[in-house]
Design brief:
With 115 residues, the chain is α+β, with helices and mostly antiparallel strands. It contains two helices and five strands; from the N terminus they run βββββαα. The protein has a three-stranded antiparallel sheet, with no helix packed on it. A two-stranded antiparallel ribbon has the order 4-5. 5% of the residues are buried.
């Protein structure tokens, strides 16, 4: 059966896993077979920290700071999406229809005024 190894960085924070390792895999200094989950089998709140014998989830304060730092390092990406040729053509048809309806309404009002 393949094994999974969980790793931590120099700050003892969880930094990923290696899956599908052979049964005779030898752990490195920053690895464990202990899965980072709570006692109830549910995941832990970030940052997930290795204590030397098990994982602990971050406190609410640690989590808020972790998320603040994580979000501040994400690039601010803005993407301009150009409509396709078919969308542009459909939009033009809609504009022409609106103009035609306005012209019909104006013509009908003029005819009614004459009648």
């Amino acid at each position: 059966m393949a094994k999974t190894v969980y790793m931590w960085d120099s700050n003892n924070k969880y930094c990923g896993a290696k899956v599908g390792l052979p049964d005779d895999y030898t752990l490195a200094a920053n690895e464990t077979f202990t899965k980072p989950e709570g006692e109830n089998g549910v995941g832990l709140q970030t940052p997930i920290i290795w204590t030397g014998s098990n994982w602990r989830g971050g406190t609410d304060e640690e989590h808020a700071e972790y998320e603040k730092k994580r979000l501040s390092t994400m690039p601010n990406i803005s993407v301009k999406i150009e409509p396709s040729k078919s969308d542009q053509a459909l939009n033009n048809i809609g504009l022409q229809l609106a103009q035609t309806q306005t012209q019909i309404q104006t013509t009908n009002e003029a005819i009614n005024a004459l009648g």
